[in-house]
């Protein structure tokens, strides 16, 4: 069956005007301006008229805790797994799963199983081997083997630096881990990215700079997240991006975290652009189903709330509506840039040959009317 989406006001992410999109199986077979003849007609073609509604790429989220997170306050503070129903309604069509603080009761095997459960529901799901701690937990006995032989594993993470919950890795340990992930990624045709949880210790992103200064590993092998968690960390992140690295901003937050000094993700995007950071060096992630914990000055647990996958689309809207960032530029932060950083060439764009992952936006307000993933409509509002 072929599907023809007529009269889409297309942002690919660049604005393309009114277009028709032909979907064949899982991919986009053609993109044709609306004033040209339809690419194909006939009884084998399902035709859907979008009547000029905006169509954007499906969102790409580099950090989702498929199997839940938390537990820093005891077993009663564990957060739940991600539900398929929540995922398909969120607008995120490509999700990368990670373990976090807890790699004892949650495992790479459980993470992989959950990834395949969500994939059976129509989404594209990938994952990182390892967790906050070093040496990393793996399925096959090594990071390199996990990346090379398990299709879903595209890198290692969420490795913790500058955080009291991490293993306080040395420069040598970080360099060895990055080298293993990089080489295995090259052999497997993957990014081999090292996805890095960054805490609020004064060292900030300096451990990653030290690796780049003392080895042949480039800053771009790392993708540090939570860079908007404090003002000082954000300022260091701006410097890091100017030095050739990438930074990831967390969209899930709480009133308490904002009161403690976290910068809201949309505001952080606006500040980064104002500071003339190359937009391609900035990504957004939801940290969905992780705990968003608070600790006092002595490092004692105060409380937590779970991250939400829906926050990624919400922050995309805030970038556009509250900060005046053009939609095509904001889309990059929530989709295209992450696809590039993670080595996913068929994601984050709506063009011939790319995966048919797309969102149909509502005519009024900031809302999703339809979610399409790999050529299938998974969600329709109402």
Shape: globular
| Proportion of residues in helical segments | 25-40%
Q: Number of domains in the coordinates? A: 2
The CATH class designation of the largest domain is Alpha Beta
Describe this entry's structure for a reader.
This protein has 382 residues and is an alpha/beta fold. The chain has two domains: 2-56 and 349-380, Urease, subunit C, domain 1, CATH 2.30.40.10; 59-341, TIM Barrel (Alpha-Beta Barrel), CATH 3.20.20. It is built from ten helices and 18 strands. The strands form four sheets. Strands 1, 2, 3, 4, 5, 16, 17 and 18 form an eight-stranded mixed sheet that branches. A six-stranded parallel sheet has the order 6-7-8-9-10-11. Strands 12-13 form a two-stranded parallel sheet. Strand 14 (291-295) and strand 15 (301-306) form a beta hairpin. Helix 4 crosses helix 5 (206-214) and helix 9 packs across helix 10. The model has no long low-confidence stretch (mean pLDDT 95). Its EC number is 3.4.19.-.
